[in-house]
Amino acid sequence: MRNEAKVVAITGASSGIGEETARRLAGDGHRLLLGARRTDRLDALTREINAAGGTAAFRHLDVTDAADVRDFVAAAQERYGRVDVMVNNAGVMPLSPLDALKVDEWDRMIDVNVRGVLHGIAAALPVMRAQGGGHFVNVASVGAYEVSPTAAVYCATKFAVRAISEGLRQESDGSVRVTLVSPGVTESELAEGISDPAAREAMKAYRAVALPASAIAGAIAYAVAQPAGVDVNEIVVRPAASAQ
Ligand SMILES: NC(=O)c1ccc[n+]([C@@H]2O[C@H](COP(=O)([O-])OP(=O)(O)OC[C@H]3O[C@@H](n4cnc5c(N)ncnc54)[C@H](OP(=O)(O)O)[C@@H]3O)[C@@H](O)[C@H]2O)c1
Q1: Distance CA 81, CA 195 (A)
Q2: What is the CATH number of the domain that holds 61?
Q3: Does residue 84 lie within any of the structural domains?
Q4: Domains contained in the chain, number
Q5: Separation of alpha carbons 122 and 242, rounded Å
Q6: Sign (positive or negative) of CA dihedral 192, 194, 195, 199
Q7: Cα of 2 from ligand 1 centre, angstroms
Q8: Is any atom of ligand 1 closer than 6 Å to the C-beta of 12?
Q9: What are phi and psi of 70, to 5 degrees?
Q10: Among 62, 59, 48, 51, which Cα is nearest to 20's?
Q11: Looking at the domain assignment, is residue 195 inside a domain?
């Protein structure tokens, strides 16, 4: 049986987990608006989904810009009439030891990983309230639960996403659901943004057991498929062979 068709907006859909989530949710019959900065990737993915019988559109999106995120959500509402699910997935992970003082990279992680999620909430929450309900799926990390060397700032951003998600859930009157999805190491382009040579090298061994991005897409699809009264709050997905 196919899921009830929902309108889903996905940030960071141009690669990795967001891209696979788009494929999976389109396959489940949902209608999608995909956002990221690399529109050539989004264009190709949208064509692929629509050619396979799904329903998707895309729009350029920079989640660090609150007005742009508002326009993105408004575009989904305009196109499909409502926004049932907002997947706040866009993220960056330029790991380094604090001693390296990569202040610009710290700022970028805070801007994308924390402010980006807040901008998604600011854009979609009023729409969900007005239409009588909705669902946020915020992608955090196992780094939302534990800290490791070189990952202090990244983990801080993911702890923040967890705190914000829990606060949003507690403030909900039951109509707005909130799911935090926390992946362990997963195949994607995330580690390509690491400029610190030692952190980059260490990541190679860590990523040897990486999950396929479809594993995280499956967890998101599970949360999205629940009936209205059921709120799956937190899902942690690790490779079976991974201690962290
Ligand atoms: N892979 C893992 O091991 C892992 C583990 C735990 C958590 N996560 C989390 O999973 C999420 C997805 O990451 P991924 O692993 O799939 O990595 P990825 O392949 O690098 O994908 C990151 C996505 O975020 C988008 N993005 C980055 N900056 C953006 C911005 N300013 N505005 C809009 N989109 C932006 C990128 O698109 P553009 O560059 O085209 O804008 C891309 O689509 C992130 O939140 C990440 O922290 C990943």
Answers
A1: 42
A2: 3.40.50.720
A3: yes
A4: 1
A5: 35
A6: negative
A7: 28
A8: yes
A9: -60, -45
A10: 48
A11: no
What is residue 242's predicted lDDT score, i.e. its pLDDT? 79
In the residue annotation, 154 being an active-site residue is answered as yes
Q: Which of 80, 145, 154, 206 is catalytic?
A: 154
Pairing of strands 85-88, 234-237: unpaired
Tokens found for residue 214: 């479809």
Token readout for 46 is: 């949208």
> Are 95 and 149 within 8 A, CB to CB?
no
pLDDT score, position 81: 97
- Helix, strand, coil % (nearest 5) of the chain? 50, 15, 30
In the reported structure, the alpha carbon of residue 15 is separated from the centroid of ligand 1 by a whole-number distance in angstroms of 7
- Give me the torsion for CA of 87, 88, 90, 93, rounded to 10°: -130
Q: Is the CB of 70 under 6 A from ligand 1?
A: no
Q: Is residue 242 part of a domain?
A: no
Residue pLDDT, tens place only, 83-98: 999 999 999 999 999 9
The parent domain of residue 85 ranges over: 7-93+103-184+211-237
Which residue matches tokens 């196992």?
Answer: 142
11 within ligand 1 shell (Cβ under 6 A): yes
Pick from 129, 145, 174: which is nearest to 234 by CA? 145
Distance from residue 113's CA to the centre of ligand 1 (Å): 9
Q: Is 15 in the pocket of ligand 1 (CB under 6 A)?
A: yes
Phi first, then psi, for residue 231 (nearest 5°) are -115, 105
125 lies in some domain: yes
Residues of the chain with confidence (pLDDT) below 70? 1-3, 244
